[in-house]
UniProtKB/TrEMBL annotation:
Transmembrane segments: none annotated. It is an enzyme of class 5 (isomerase). InterPro entries: 4-OT (IPR018191), 4-OT-like_dom (IPR004370), Tautomerase/MIF_sf (IPR014347). Keywords: Isomerase. Its EC number is 5.3.2.-. Pfam families: Tautomerase. It comes from Nitrospirillum amazonense. This is Tautomerase. GO terms for molecular function: isomerase activity. The active site is at P2. Belongs to the 4-oxalocrotonate tautomerase family. It comes from the Bacteria. Residues 2-66 form the 4-oxalocrotonate tautomerase-like domain.
Length: 77
């Protein structure tokens, strides 16, 4: 019984969106499950997929919260 955990930041992928859509999550679940089947032979009905959405301010990169990291990176560009 494999469990696949996918962590993503809670922000939209399109302008004005503030979260991943149900359709995008369904595609992630399908793709991860099919990958487990193709690579490891794990049946679809025995694979669990958990999607964890993390608020952007709780995600760090380069020693900084992501919003600050992005601000600094944009200031350099």
């Amino acid at each position: 019984m494999p469990v696949v955990t996918i962590q993503i930041t809670r922000e939209g992928t399109t302008p004005g969106a503030d979260a991943t859509t149900a359709e995008q999550k369904a595609a992630l679940i399908k793709g991860a499950s099919e990958l487990m089947l193709q690579v490891l032979g794990k049946p679809l009905d025995s694979t669990f997929v958990v999607i964890e959405e993390v608020p952007l301010e709780n995600w760090g990169w380069g020693g900084l919260p992501v919003p600050e990291y992005r601000r600094r990176k944009a200031a350099i560009a």
